[in-house]
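Lab notebook page, bench 4
Experiment: in silico fold of construct C2
Operator: M.H.
Input chain length: 76 residues
Purpose: comparison with the prior construct
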Amino acid sequence: MKVKTRIVGNSKTVTIPKAFNVAKDTEFTVKQLKNGSIIYTPVHIHRNPFEGDWFNEDLRQIDVTDGEEILDSEWS
């Protein structure tokens, strides 16, 4: 896939294709490598653990010694 820069005001912009499913207002850190590559990395925002619907999601505990599931979410 190719994208092309365009001028918006006094800046050059590169659009992110819809297929990448990047949420609106996502913030990125950006750096340019010596070879000219530009890398955009999403900034991870720390979420409040008391907000949202986390308790309804699939919560599994895995025994890291042998990789077998020790508590299935269907157990409850």
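Observations: The radius of gyration is 20 Å. Residues 6 and 56 are 43 Å apart (CA to CA).
Next step: discuss at group meeting.
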